[in-house]
Design goal:
mainly alpha; 2 helices; elongated
Length: 86
């Protein structure tokens, strides 16, 4: 038996997490601060761009998952928790 290796976060995972953190920050700015109209519009515009980038990353991951499932003839093995694990 070989010991399990800890996986490093992938670049896309780090980018997605960073993007989501930026979106949360913008939401907080818009919800909790008295921002001027121009600043609020700029923050909103930036948020929309970040959401689109995150969606692109998620769409790419979805395509990879679909391809992997297809390559395995639709069979995906999944370990189900036993009754004692619940």
């Amino acid at each position: 038996m070989t010991p399990e290796k800890k996986s490093k976060p992938t670049k896309s995972k780090v980018e997605l997490e960073t993007t989501l953190a930026k979106i949360e920050s913008l939401i907080s700015l818009l919800e909790h601060n008295d921002t001027g109209l121009e600043e609020a519009l700029a923050a909103f515009e930036k948020g929309v761009k970040l959401v689109r980038a995150a969606q692109t990353t998620l769409d790419s991951a979805d395509q990879k998952i679909s391809l992997l499932i297809e390559e395995n003839n639709g069979i995906v093995e999944q370990a189900l928790p036993s009754e004692g694990d619940k």
